[in-house]
What does this fold into?
Amino acid sequence: QVQVVESGGGLAQAGGSLRLSCTASGLTFDASAMGWFRQAPGKEREGVSCISDNSAWKYYADFAKGRFTISRDNSKNTLYLQMNNLNPEDTAMYYCAASPTYGWAYRASEYVYWGQGTQVTVSS
It folds into this structure.
């Protein structure tokens, strides 16, 4: 049984930082593309950042470039998202997703397993 579990969300002030973590089990983590997505109230889900199985390829949405950093530790089956210089527009539920079919994927449709999400709230 595949499990994807996010942690690290919470409340931050504008300009602050948060580090999200995601652990995945029940799949071959080091052969899976991993990604972060988010959804704010009343808005569609959007991609934040994705990383290939061996960390060679990374994708960042325009709003994430220069502020967010994705990384993974395959020895720990863990994915990270370091978020700096947060602003209120970053307030959303953040989801971790795994794509065991592809070593590299950046489309949400290519991700099969999803976590329950971790809430990020940024106050001004």
Observations:
- The mean pLDDT is 96.
- The CA atoms of residues 52 and 104 lie 4 Å apart.
